[in-house]
Records
---
Amino acid sequence: MVVDVIGNISTIDPRVVSIISMKIHWHRVVKMVLRLAGIGLFTFALLFAVGLWYSTAHGYMTWWFSSSSHVTVDGVRSGFLHVNRQHSAVIITRTDLRPSQSYLVGLSGRKYLTHCGDWQAPRLPAFSIGDVNPPCSFFSNGSDLPVADNAVLSTLTVRPGFVEFQTEHGKKVTASW
């Protein structure tokens, strides 16, 4: 038994306080853990959103959006199309071949047409491509792949909302949106 200076009698020696004998308020612990997890998730989401905004605003990332379009190969519907945010280029993906094949077509300025090699555009409503290692580029266009049906640049026709070209295997690819 311990008597303090005021004269109160206590059975607990203040010099020997054990954390084991303390009552744990589990609802407070759970609340604190959930609060910390929420703050962590919010911080991660905020940093991710700021990174996306920064890279898009400074031109490090280009966004591509699905378009309600008609892609035909020799008159048969077989494919889909994505347009970039600036409407200066399209990615045409034809699905008549296995694996599917995509072509990058420049619409503004000097017109260009590039085979995307073994990469094909995803069937997502929107996706982004970074500037460091783009899948469709002039330097790594995959034109030497055995399954590549390369486009013939001299047959490229580009008008507003319309692209048409022939491939080396004689297929006529038409896209309109």
Note: The chain is about 20% helix and 35% strand.
---
Amino acid sequence: MVAALVGLVGLTSLVAAAGCVADAAPKGAQGTSDAASLSAGESGVGARAASGVSAVAADRSIGLYWEPKIGARWYRISVRSRRAATRPASRSARWGRWGGAVRLPTNSRQFVVTVSGAGKRLVNGHKYQVRLQYRTGTGWRTWTTFIRTPRYTQPVAATPCGVTTTPATWEHVVWIIMENHGSAQTVGSSEAPYFNSLISRCGLASNFFAITHPSLPNYLAMTSGSTHGVVDDKLPIDHQLAVPNLFAQLGAGQWRTLAESMPGNCVARNSGDYVARHNPATYYPEVAAQCATQDQPLSGAPDLSSRFTLIVPNNKSNTHDTDVRYGDTWLASVVPQLLDSPQYRAGRTVVFITYDEDSGNEGNHIPALVLAPSVVPGTRDSTRYTLYSLLRTTEEILGVPLLANASAAPSMRSGFRL
């Protein structure tokens, strides 16, 4: 079987694998905006079309599959739109074509070519005609087939996951940190109907663990990669930590903390239902100036415009001083606002919901939900993850270096298609 991936937008480089040689870079067949994977009934996934070649649409490419022909040494591939209304004007009547042919070694049994540099997705619901030509000693011969990209479904609160493929880049990560309940107290519990509906609609890390007890060292671990020897819940005045941290990595204007019931910006003392130990940015003096403007009270619909947003419920909403049902009701009021936000609906936002620690009787086994448009609904990943994995995954998504223990923690990206 021979396979090739042909990008349709902004093609800049050709990479050959499995013993193949690329003799020329492509020159830009085109396409625009949204798409996902192959719709049923066009050519079949991996099956050979009647014309001899089949195609599969991906997020930013089209895959071609055909059987090598005896004596065929050179192949060239071109793609064109079949819907005039959406064809780029400059190529409305022409085939998009590679700048040259690709040579298949004489004894090759497999042929894989990938094109990198595609900048946009394939057209939403668009039909393409794909032409494959191969050369034998008697000249060029041609196969053609058709493929349509399915209609793109925008993620919303009702269907937040399983509606898109993994984007080339993520733009936003959101954390919600609940308190002091383990996996056995939440997963499958009748006291948490909304929480469990998110498990069925999105994904659960079913073997996820906090680092230690009590709360504060866990918040430090998840934002700096270490507990730094802290073993208590004292205020920031007692633990000013001049250490690398996620907030400093992201920098001015790139992160936001939204803390419920906090009486002002970047409050480093306890006040009513707000406690400073759940607001880790207040412990890092390096980001004090940023904290003064970016660490804000949670009020109204959460603003997710920063690359990273940490949402800190107060001690009632987070179940610290209440029960699982109380926290579930709070989540049911807040999470839909996140999922209906412009950032999430754009398909480039990941939301993590977890607990800082268990209640002390589950070995710190805590639930962790992963919500993203690319997550397959009902995913349950049994890989052993920790709060360091949460940090690592976030740093990978946002493109910053891995801090301390995050570098040795397993990433959650592959398990949840992030």
Note: Residues 1-51, 83-101, 104-121 have pLDDT under 50 and may be disordered.
